[in-house]
Amino acid sequence: MSSSTQRVCVTIVSLITCLCLAYTAGFGTYSLWDKLKQTSQPKPLPVFWEAWDRIEQYFYGEVPSPQERTYGAIHATLELLGDPYTVFVEPQPRELERDRLRGSFGGVGVTLWRDATGQMVLYPHPDSPAEREGILEGDVLLAVDHQVIYTDTTTVDDVRAWLHGEVGTTVTLTISRPPTPPFDLVIARDEIQVPSVTWLVLDRAPDIGYVRVESFTERTNDEIASALQELLREADPISGLILDLRSNFGGLIEPAVSVASQFLSDGVVLYEEYRDDRRRTFPVRDGGIATDIPLVVLVNGQTASASEIVAGALQDHERAPLIGEPTFGKGVVQQIYDLSDGSCLHVTSAIWLTPNQHRITGEGLSPDIYVPQGDGSQDEQLERAVAYLQSRVKE
Predict the structure, then answer these.
(1) Considering only CA atoms, which of 115, 153, 107 is closest in space to residue 131?
(2) N or C: which end of the chain has fewer CB within 10 A?
(3) pTM of full prediction above 0.85
(4) Is the peptide bond before 179 cis (omega within 30 degrees of 0)?
(5) Could you state, in order of their start, the residue ranges of all structural domains in the chain?
(6) CB atoms < 10 A from the CB of 185, how many?
(7) Cα–Cα distance between 24 and 27 in angstroms, integer?
């Protein structure tokens, strides 16, 4: 190799080496700058615990437990979303929620009520463990398993959670029944069934059947079918039906679709709309029992969520008029995520639209026949529903 060729090769190698060093230096500088930027950014969680470290060191009063801090932080953070339905549910309320949707739970079978003085009053269910063990209507509950019930801080949901438990386990109730001194009753929990559907033939209108749906639970599908079958095979056939959805705060969507489908022959019950504009369609299910009989639906300001789905479907298909007051306006889909400690997270993931694509959330449903709730003992909304059906029969 000539000396000139060697000089050229050396020059080329030197240039390549310089370029590599320059690239490496540039990349290293960029990486270092990126890391410096990241370390200069505030880190929310370390700051959170740094603040609490100072609280633990210097706060004069009692410091909340780590669990209370965690729950409080989750509750407060979710408020930033501005959505009242995306919520964190702590373990005891989650247990009550799960029991309500299931339609049965382990308990003693009592209704709880606070009187004017704040005392927790008991009303035992017929043939319940509470009644069998001697609980009387009007007994005052002082404690559950020696957990004292305070008039100002203990909620009804707190006490419900204490009374719930596995079937066969026992719970001790401390009872006040003056003039008898307070005493304890030990009661074994049993499975308590909570029907979601009640029905009857009206005394004042024996040709009209009445069906009330309290909530949409896992039991509702079978219960609505049984109620309609019984009403439609009465010795004197009924000529009309009243579906009462007043003060029904909703529940599970699948039972709601089934209930609406009992009164519709075809079409759509509702649409779910997601944030990317995708839509899911819920069609009417085959096999409706009461698709032809005249029908009215009672609604009020506490008719919400899944019950608005049913009312909206029947209204849009012109299957039944709504009688009563405007509904609540809660038409959002919540995904429920159970967490490791028994709590759960409700996350709003979609909104509901009626068959005519009416948005329920924030708007609600307007009744076809507006009848305000009366102040007296007479149920004016029910009376108007009866009058409407009777007028249809005469036409």
Answers:
(1) 107
(2) C
(3) no
(4) yes
(5) 44-80, 104-193, 197-394
(6) 15
(7) 5
- Which range of 12-26, 154-168, 196-210, 276-290 scores highest in mean pLDDT? It is 276-290
Is 292 in a helix, a strand, or coil?
coil
Half-sphere exposure of 131 (CA within 13 A, CB side): 11
Q: Which residues pair with 268 in a beta bridge?
A: 283
CATH superfamily of 197-394: 2-enoyl-CoA Hydratase; Chain A, domain 1 (3.90.226.10)
The pLDDT-based confidence of 5 (bands split at 50, 70, 90) is very low
Neighbour tally for 376: CB within 10 Å: 6
Strands 268-273 and 279-283: antiparallel
Q: Which of 158, 196, 215, 330 is catalytic?
A: 330
Q: What does residue 115 show for φ and ψ, rounded to 5 degrees?
A: -85, -175
Overall average pLDDT of the 19-26 stretch: 42
Q: Any catalytic annotation for residue 330? A: yes
Active-site position among 316, 349, 379, 394: 316
Please tell me which residue, 74 or 33, carries the higher pLDDT value.
74
Q: How far apart are CA 117 and CA 182, in angstroms?
A: 18
Please determine whether the domains at 104-193 and 197-394 fall in the same fold group of CATH.
no
Q: At what angle do helices 91-102 and 156-163 cross, to 10 degrees?
A: 70
**Nearest Cα to 365, choosing from 313, 319, 318, 317?**
313
**Average per-residue pLDDT in the chain?**
87
Q: Which of 128, 305, 307, 343 is catalytic?
A: 305
